[in-house]
Each structure stands twice: as structure tokens, then as C-alpha cells.
Amino acid sequence: MMPLAYARSGSLVRVVSIRAGVGLARRLRELGIIEGSILRVVRSSGPGPVIVEVIDGVPKERCPWGVGGWCSFCYRRPRLVLGAGMAMKVFVEEVNGSGR
Fold it and tell me: Per DSSP, which regions of the chain are E strands?
């Protein structure tokens, strides 16, 4: 387990825990970054801003159709830029290509 800020560019990671205050945790949840989310690290340069692509993470209650994940209507895999401080509060583990 490591902070997202230290994940390698190009790697797939699973969010293991979020160690943040209520406000930041809520904002990350709104962006689809929750425990169990799968992210692809587009660019990371050590302890600095990180660009990630959310592969799977929309909570069912946020999905307009109640599906959760990325259904065919929501499929967009947004890219997000997280500042260094935010990325240091999201703890991840690398996963293989199947998301396991």
C-alpha cells in the first residue's frame, strides 16, 4: 500500500483507503474515487500532481440510472488531476490488468 502520489505512470491501482477529512472524502467520492475504485495513473512525477483516469468508481447512488460503475450511458472514464496533498491521502495498491 502506498499513497497515490507515488504510483507509477501507466499502472492500474485499486483504492485501499482514503485518509482525509470529511470534506475531501466527500469530494473524492463525488469524483468516483472511493475504496475499491480502479484508477489508471496517466502521469505521476513522484510527490507532485497526479493525473488519473477513473476506470471504475461511480457509486450506485450517484449513477442517474442506479447502475453504478460505468454503464453504457455514463461511460466516459474522466481524467482527473489531483494535487500532491490530495494524492498523498489516497492509499492504493497496484493490480494486474484484470483488476484483481
Answer: 2-3, 12-18, 38-44, 50-56, 79-82, 90-94
Average pLDDT on 2-16 reads 94
Instruction: Tell me if the pTM is above 0.70.
Output: yes
Give the helix ranges, DSSP H, for 1-100. Answer: 22-30, 84-87
Q: Using the 8-state DSSP alphabet, how is residue 62 labeled?
A: G
Q: Are 53 and 23 in contact (CB under 8 A)?
A: no
Q: What is the pLDDT of residues 31-81, one digit of tens each?
A: 888 898 889 999 998 778 999 998 875 555 655 555 555 554 455 567 899
**Alpha-carbon torsion 24, 28, 33, 34, what sign?**
positive
- 98, three cell numbers: 484484470
Q: Is residue 15 within 8 Å of residue 33, measured between CB atoms?
A: yes
**What single DSSP character describes residue 46?**
S
